[in-house]
Design brief:
Distance between the termini: 72 Å
Number of strands: 8
Strand order of the largest sheet: 3-2-1-4-7-6-8-5
Shape: globular
Structural class: alpha/beta
Mean pLDDT: 94
Strand content: 15-25%
Oligomer: single chain
Number of helices: 12
């Protein structure tokens, strides 16, 4: 007796993780993800041609699919992950993030509330106390997704939930800009809803020193200028924002003083010093951009 083959059922969820050359943190991310309920979920790591082998991780995590995207950047990696999966619901997390044990469960619970949902990103230290200035600064200021979403109308993709049909409608991430901010702003401009959900949580390590923090903000400032626009009027607006940077440092000092995340006067002083140093550095970068140069 012949039977008709059963058509494979598409999983409900896909988790897409862009990665480049950070195996210990990727392993930590996947270990935490395995503590979630991954039934009916496809998990894809999209590697940007790392110079190290991922063979050991492939063997350690048979439930995870590893694919290679030769074009560098988180944007093409995420786009490739979307193309390689079929689930209607899409979870995005970065390779250096650690999802909470209920990350997927909370996402499934709240998914119907909006078209795009960003969650909380907690900051943790990878080094022993005392905190450096960079770590103290990040403990206070890094990854304020609630503000990004509710004030700025955008979200990062280190902790983001959305649907495949949204991508089908507006297109994928764009390389060379702040791809997650640009994509979520584009989705909102198309009429899709974006909300913040505090229970949807991941954790991210703090930048450990000034060079790491400077590199992050150099990249962010470069991407921000592209989003700002490069017309004469937009450059003038950028220059005005640049000149306001030192004053913004002063305005934010009370936030450092009130923070319950810093545990000593030394950490408070180092956080304030880093805040002022970083805002002054950003002013210099932004004025160079506004004048038509590069950082």
């Amino acid at each position: 007796m012949s039977t008709t083959p059963t058509k494979p059922v598409s999983p409900a969820d896909a988790v897409i993780i862009p990665h480049y050359n950070d195996l210990p943190r990727l392993e930590r991310c996947l270990e935490a993800l395995m503590l979630n309920d991954i039934r009916d979920t496809e998990i894809v790591v999209v590697d940007n041609n790392s110079p190290v082998s991922l063979d050991d991780l492939c063997a350690s995590f048979p439930a995870v699919r590893f694919i290679t995207e030769p074009e560098k950047g988180a944007a093409p990696a995420r786009n490739r992950g979307i193309r390689e999966t079929s689930a209607p619901r899409l979870f995005f997390i970065d390779a250096d993030c650690v999802p909470a044990r209920d990350w997927l469960a909370v996402g499934r619970e709240v998914a119907s509330r909006a078209d795009l949902i960003g969650g909380r990103v907690n900051v943790f230290d990878e080094t022993s106390p005392p905190r450096s200035g960079a770590e103290a600064f990040e403990a206070v200021f890094a990854f304020n997704f609630r503000r990004y979403i509710e004030v700025q109308g955008c979200s990062g993709a280190g902790n983001l939930l959305t649907r495949r049909d949204v991508f089908d409608e507006i297109g994928g991430f764009i390389n060379g800009v702040s791809e997650d901010r640009e994509w979520t702003m584009r989705a909102v401009a198309h009429g899709y809803s974006l909300i913040y959900e505090d229970r949807l949580q991941v954790s991210h390590p703090a930048r450990q020193d000034w060079p790491a923090l400077r590199a992050k903000w150099r990249r962010t400032t470069s991407e921000g200028f592209q989003l700002n626009g490069t017309s004469p009027a937009k450059r003038l607006k950028w220059a005005i924002r640049a000149l306001a940077m030192p004053a913004s440092a002063v305005v934010h000092i009370p936030k450092v003083l009130r923070s319950d995340k810093l545990t000593s006067s030394g950490e408070i002083l180092r956080a304030i010093a880093t805040l002022i140093r970083l805002r002054c550095q950003r002013m210099v970068w932004m004025l160079r951009q506004a004048a038509g140069g590069t950082i």
